[in-house]
């Protein structure tokens, strides 16, 4: 019995590759909010497994109508069920080749967990931070930036100076981005930020720990300006850091607004 002949498939139109007559290039086009499993080097445990929220983009020349969005996902999937940070350079080169682009950019933002012991009782607890790898390939040169977002406690020096009882304090958030000449641990960047604040945060505190943290903050008041300057001073002392951008935002406890400061510096 003969099988039925296969239907002749009609060629599908490649609309994205059609010519665009507006002659306006696009700086970045691609996919965002794509989640993907990722391996990160962990100073204590060697490898930490996490989930990254990804952005992958390329430039689009003026004569192309659109880019091929599926190719971004294809490139990522080629690295198996779990992405490793060492693959990022290869991903950038693959994107430029597959999409006929001059430049490519990727962001991988992910939660990063550290076990922290309470300062007095030593009770262990898991603290989560946000980290981000941002990499750009342009003219065969790769630019790589590591960012950590670190929650801290700050206590107002002015409030302490003028108040008979106590001083107002608040949680703050520091966004610390660096370029570097040699690899640097995420843990070390987090520690640098935490040592610059009135106090670091913990996930688990017993009463003796809470007393110690409260008193530590009271003895170490910092304005938001002090916070970014402290981080800048410590960054200047780390030879591996070649550039940094530090933003601090205090979620004020007695004002209906936040306090904010930023320092960006490239070492000579």
From TrEMBL:
Converts GTP to 7,8-dihydroneopterin triphosphate. Residues 1-16 have a biased composition (Polar residues). It catalyses: GTP + H2O = 7,8-dihydroneopterin 3'-triphosphate + formate + H(+). The record marks 156 as: May be catalytically important. Keywords: Hydrolase. Residues 1-23 are annotated as: Disordered. GO terms for biological process: tetrahydrofolate biosynthetic process. It comes from the Bacteria. Belongs to the GTP cyclohydrolase IV family. Pathway: Cofactor biosynthesis; 7,8-dihydroneopterin triphosphate biosynthesis; 7,8-dihydroneopterin triphosphate from GTP: step 1/1. The keyword Zinc-finger does not apply. Pfam families: GCHY-1 (PF02649). InterPro entries: GTP_cyclohydrolase_FolE2, GTP_cyclohydrolase_FolE2/MptA. Its EC number is 3.5.4.16. The gene is folE2. GO terms for molecular function: GTP cyclohydrolase I activity. This is GTP cyclohydrolase FolE2.
